[in-house]
Fold:
Amino acid sequence: MDSAHEASLASAHVLWFEKTGIGDIFRVGGKNASLGELTQALRTRGVKVPDGFATTVDAYRQFLALNGLEKVISGCLDAYRSGDSTLREAGDAIRQAILAAEIPPGTAASIRESYIQLCRRTGEANVAVAVRSSATAEDLPDASFAGQQETYLNVSGIDAVLEACRKCYASLFTDRAISYREIKNFGHLDVALSVGIQRMVRSDAGASGVMFSIDTESGFPRCVVISATWGLGETVVQGTVNPDKYQVFKPFLVDRGLVPIIQREVGSKEQKLIYSQDGNSGTLMVKTTRHEQKALVLSDAEVLTLARWAVAVEEHYGRPMDMEWAKDGTTGELFMVQARPETVQTQRQGTTFNMYHLHGQGRVLTVGAAVGDAIAAGTVSRVLETADIDSFVDGSILVTRMTDPDWVPVMKRAAAIVTDHGGPTSHAAIISRELGVPAIVGTGNATQVLKPGSPVTVSCSEGEQGRVYEGALDYDAEEVDTGTLPATQTQLMVNIGSPAAALRWWRLPAAGVGLARMEFIINNLIRVHPMALVHPERVTDDGEAAAIASLWSNHRTPHDYFIDVLATGIAKIAATFHPKPVVVRLSDFKSNEYGHLIGGRFFERPEENPMLGFRGASRYYSTAYREAFALECRALKRVRETAGFNNVIVMVPFCRTVQEGEMVLEVMAKNGLVRGQNGLEIYMMCEIPSNVVRAAEFARLFDGFSIGSNDLTQLVLGIDRDSEQLSDLFDERDPAVTAMISQAIREAHKAGIKIGLCGQGPSNHPDFAEFLVGEEIDSISLNPDTFLRTLPLIADAEFRWL
Structure:
């Protein structure tokens, strides 16, 4: 037999990835066609793909025909539909018949020859391979079929490879696969299977994970989301670990000098999947070390490399993509091992989105990663094993350790899903998004703290962190089409505190962020008093000192911890609205608030009235805080220059005198934040009567004013804004306050600088918003959840006034 004839016969049974493309989906299934496409089209762009080959769909159909399996399959499924057998019985009978069947000699010979050739290519005898199922109805744009068929890892030797192929064929008829095809109305015999045989990347000794070229929760299209864990990647997909999470701003990846990483989050990573250590094929789950649990899996350089690959893959396919990657622990090389269309957010593109509002209050029972942005209430159905699925109550809250494809039939009947394990790219998260069911994954303790039958509320509406509240709380849902909103002459901006929640609001037609609160990041993410990171030796309480050391342990120094966490938090907010301006207010804690941070009591003196005490600008040049303020400046400099977000404007709060403003600007300049340099603008909060009275002088120092109506009202009316007894008198619409606001606007315009307002007033009082329009204020910054209902009011006011 000549070589051409041999090649022709082999091509009927086997195709190498480099000779396969996306157009071959009906020859080698979705997964293998995608691997072929990656190999052919993207290696030239630096994307590395492990070598391998795929059996053809024709080989699978020959396998069925040779063994008379079509009749067996049809008969078993007919018996299931008629009620003569259960799904479990039908699936088991089909799988046993497939496992007992013979692989056609021609197919077996082609697989054998191709495996030998793969061994030659790699220079390894009996090279270890991953044997993956690839169905013709898999990785489609409108159905992920996530995890429906099996993958077998660390398979060595031709006999083991052939047996793994037979197991892949059988996995086309697992109970979960049969059930999923029933849901999606796919004919069971219309779907065929190819088997991919691909050189194993030694990620068992390295790392692996999942990557999306779109934010899977908000649909924000301009970032790459990467999940990473130690060992083999099945733990991320199956949700058995809580992985590290990274986000990268895609538009800046073209500039190799920038590091546009907008999130680094350490996951617990309590276990990892490695190769069996007894010399046999297969895998073994082991506990990770304490160091592995606390360390980030990927370096910044590796994160950026993967993100650039994600962009290359997305550009090639012309759509958002869901990818898997692996890092070889021996060579340190990164590889792309899978790419498929993203199937959830892609379907939701448009100007319409739902906003959920939680009205009630309850005790937080547990927290985890939020999947979706909805809210659901119901009673807890705790199901720990698939064998107990029948006990699930339709419409209740499914609480379990983790899910795999066997859980799909019950997941679609749940009002919400809560799991102990898993991250945003786990099976539970992927399927929950596809089904439109809110979920909270990776809580760590849901099955322990959520009691069966108890009423709870699952809220995914508050950012990346989802919360399970005690009791059935009141909430509502609002569908909004931003495409129907009127345009306004007044710039409408948003107030943002939490970086985790920022991406939720990217669809808002906002002119930028009028107020990003730095203290939210310090309080919720850093958690330590900044001076306790500058001088940890002054913290003499052993418990607090240990807590501080634990928080910064993943960083080179305590300083690096503060700068890195603050910078990435600000960068995430800046990325959401880039290139629109994002005004970041320097820290504005009061001394009592600083004192509540870890280590804070060692650096703060008690004050009778912290509202009027050591806060804002007075801290930045003082010996008591100046060293910590230098860290704030370094974080902002990193955001603007290293990450590339020069849309960030810095704002100085509570600046009492012109001399104090000059001192603050001098300290900022010494720390690398020079007004006008690299386009840096510096604003001042206009919130003290002296700011209004001396507005012309302040305007020479700053590029813009932002009226803080809460503090201005407090100081004009002489009312502590936190006083319950005087709350009825506290009103920013008081004529004395509005007179001050009018004067500030006039003086700013006279000086030729911008002026806006970022207090609560316009969100709470339509007549106050109308007053600001009449005064021709440049911008109004609203709370995101009130933005859409306030915008039409502003438009109406402009129609009457302007």
Q: What stands out?
A: Residues 3-199 form a domain with the Dna Ligase; domain 1 fold (CATH 3.30.1490.20).
